[in-house]
Amino acid sequence: MTEARGPVGRSGEARAPYAPGTPCWVSLMVHGMATTQEFYGALFGWEFRPGPRQLGPYVRALLDGREVAGIGQLPPDRHLPVAWTPYLATDDADRTADQVRLCGGTLGVGPLDAADDGRLAIGSDPSGAVFGVWQAVALPGTAVSGVPGTPVWNELLTFETVGVAKFYESVFGYDEEAVVSADYDYVTLLVDGRPVAGIHGVGNTLPRDRGPHWVTYFEVEDLEEALSRVIDLGGHVIAPARDGEHGRVATVSCPEGARFALLRPSSR
C-alpha cells in the first residue's frame, strides 16, 4: 500500500483529510477516453496516468503530478448519461451505503475496493441524482485545490430542496443554511460550519433529458478565454458568462455532453 498524501492548498500547504460529507473527488464516465482526455488536458492542463480498473479502463487526471479527478470508460452496451459525479467523503463506505438505502436512495455500484486507494460506492438520492461515496485509504481524494483546473464547488440541481436536503442531512450529517426567499430555493450544506456544497431547487426548469443532477464547478484563471477554448475544442456553452455570488461563472459541456461549470472566483 502506498503512503497517503493529504490535499494541499493554493500555496502548497498541507491540508487536513476530508471530513465526512465533504466532496472529495469527481469522476466522469465516457465513451471515448482518448478524445475526452485531449479535451480536458487542453482545457485545464491535466496530464493522465492509469488508475484502478475495477470499473473498467480508468485514468487519473493530474496537475503538477497531484490527483485532481478521474475519467473512466463506459461499457459499450451501457447507455448511461455522461456526467461528472461528485464523491462525498466517509469513514465507512459500507455504513454510508446502508444509510443511503434506509433514507430512500438507491445503490448502483458497490461498496467495493478500488485497489489500495480506498473503498467506494455509487448511488442516487430519492430524486434520482447520482453521487459517489469515498472511504479513503491511500488516496484521500482530490489532492490540490484553489488553483485553476481544480474542482471548487459542487451543486445539486433538483426540483425542490426540502425533501432531498433531508436525505443528504440524514445520510451525511450536514447542517443546512437555507436562503429565505419566496422565489429562490437554495440550501447550502455545511460540515463543521463550513460550506461544502449547495442544493438548488429549480422546479420545472430542469433539462428534460437530465433530471436532477450534480454540477461540478472548476476554477479558471480567465473565464472568457476558457469559454473560447471550450468551443475550439469541440465543446458547447450551455449558459453564458454571468456574475454570481462567488465570482464569474458559465455552464458548458464537453464533446461527449457532460455538463460542468467554469468559475473565475471573485478573489482572483
TrEMBL record:
Pfam families registered for this protein in UniProt: Glyoxalase_6
Q: Which domain of life is it from?
A: Bacteria
- Which InterPro entries does the UniProt record give? Anthracycline_SecMetBiosynth, Glyas_Bleomycin-R_OHBP_Dase, Glyoxalase_6, VOC_core
PROSITE patterns found in the cross-reference section: VOC
Q: Which residues form the VOC domain?
A: 22-136, 150-265
Protein name in UniProt: VOC family protein
Organism (species):
Streptomyces flavalbus
Classification lineage: Bacteria, Bacillati, Actinomycetota, Actinomycetes, Kitasatosporales
